[in-house]
Amino acid sequence: MKYYFRSDKGKIREINEDAVSVLEDTDHILALVADGMGGHQAGDVASQLAIESVVRMWENKEPRVSNKESAEVWLQSAVSKANNTVYEQSQQEDKYKGMGTTIVAAICHQTFISVAHIGDSRAYLLDKEDYKQITADHSLVGELVRTGQLSEEDAQVHPRKNVILKALGTEKDVEPDVYSTTWEEGSKLLLCTDGLTNKIDDNELYQKLLQKGSQQLIDELIQLANQRGGEDNITLALIEQQEEVGDSEC
């Protein structure tokens, strides 16, 4: 497996409230993307706390991941712990009241991937037979599209497209959605924040992902989002199923 990632604050925002981390061990890659929200720098704090919490659990190897089932259990536990961490911090200081973050987390093995998410940061999977978004946005427009009240085209320009219905850290108990599937050599998994998907539609993203995975591809996607306004932070992590393990760049 090879992986590439980068986070960019965009053209308008003063700070980057996104966070990203990718770690690997002998058998797995753990990839994390988060998009914080809240006043002042609270969004920045929320996303960093969430990522750090999951990374800490991964580094402690608790519990061990050996298959899809155990990966799903691990992700549910890790995201729940991260939620508690962010929530408890938000209750301790007034400046952090109401802060929260999206999160999309993936465990990648040579034979399977497991993904957990909360919010509207997304995961896309491209393989030889299909290309699809494998997460469902926890957002107002996402719900309207799923219930047939809004078309995907209208969702892109809806005035309340940034309204999140579910976020990590805003409530005491929040359960992530979890998804697992097999994958094969040549497949690609993309994790990203809405700073990318608000500027590049699914079909265009598909055409870009047909290219060989590289840091240049990641940079091109960020550059394109910035050329189209760059009003939000932009963060991506790309994992490609290959036999040899590659180093990361960010």
UniProtKB/TrEMBL annotation:
The keyword Disulfide bond does not apply. Keywords: Hydrolase, Manganese, Metal-binding, Protein phosphatase. Residues 2-241 form the PPM-type phosphatase domain. The keyword Manganese applies. Pfam families: PP2C_2 (PF13672). Its EC number is 3.1.3.16. It is an enzyme of class 3 (hydrolase). It catalyses: O-phospho-L-threonyl-[protein] + H2O = L-threonyl-[protein] + phosphate; O-phospho-L-seryl-[protein] + H2O = L-seryl-[protein] + phosphate. SMART domains: PP2C_SIG, PP2Cc. PROSITE patterns: PPM_2. Its cofactor is Mn(2+). One of its GO terms (molecular function) is metal ion binding. InterPro entries: PP2C, PPM-type-like_dom_sf, PPM-type_phosphatase-like_dom. It comes from the Bacteria. This is protein-serine/threonine phosphatase. It comes from Gracilibacillus dipsosauri.
